[in-house]
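>> received
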Amino acid sequence: MDRRINRRDWLATAAGATVATLAFGAKVAAAAERTKWGMPGLYPGRVIEVNHPGSIVSGQYQPAVIREMMQRGMKDLTGAGGWGEAWKQFVEPGDVVGIKLNPVGRPHCMSDASVLHQIVDGLKAAGIKAQDIVVYDRYRSEFLEAGFDKWLPEGVRWTTAVDGGDGVQQDIKGYDPDHYMDMALVLPGQDISNETARRSYAALYITKQVNKLINVCLIKDHQSAGVTVALKNLSHGLVNNVARSHATKSLNACGAFIPASVSIPMIRNKAVLHICDGIKGVYHGGPFARPEFVWEHKSMYFSTDPVSLDHIGWEVIDAQRAKVGKKPLADDLPDKFSTFVRKQPEHVEICGAMGLGVWERGKIDLRKVTLG
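>> returned
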């Protein structure tokens, strides 16, 4: 699982590393070439929503319907005439392509095999070899508990950053010491002058093992971050030392931590496509999925712009909350299921202000398609 990417990899530029200063005083090690695929990607502001009422039946995803939705979504996003042509806009033979899944809401709302299989099929249609596809999530224990290893088509590899979380998450084994985000924020009781406590390092997976990433996210409420769609799936899935971003019910810094982490060049420039599985969603008490807060949304979303995608995801969650009589995310108050003093969905707009995507609703090109 430690295969290196080919000679055309962007990592050839890493020798000239510098440090860039972001908002909130955060700094990132800047050592990756900007390309046309880097956030906000090929289609800034464009989000494709594909709905199909038959996408889930008796709680089970319907693979044939998911395939139809995936094909339509990718074609509409890219304007390509065919499935393989759509994927060729993002990858080419010789690329080593990562797929970032999400197991956190298991078993009620997590990445699904039918979606993963279609992504692998699309990559193969674009000329990517099975052995050049690497499926990932941060913790080995969660990856295996979700059963992701059992879903993989023949030849597709998988990896993780570390075995599991320890509540502190500052061991840099599995992470790259040359690629990090440095923010003056530490866990209670730790020394602010300690670089290890103050930094979040990018996983070796994103810095050394793949040169492009497909971000497969979900639509979920998050009791500290407000929403967890595309951006948080990257920020908290590809770096260490994330507990400091929401250490206690009132020490909540997701609004700053997420934008700074996603701005790490190796993350910003390699995440070329975001596919949001919104067949099911979580509207309260996330990121874990309690059955009473899971609903069937029966839609999938496609975008190269994680800010626009997350803005739409935020709207979707708020709309569902309104249906069940709950306040909007930004106005929500703590309860026994959502315990943080205040949620911080503003990280999405902050990411827009930092150039990671299009935030302004009037500039987002949301294209809705209903099938079936």
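>> The first strand starts at residue 18 and ends at 21.
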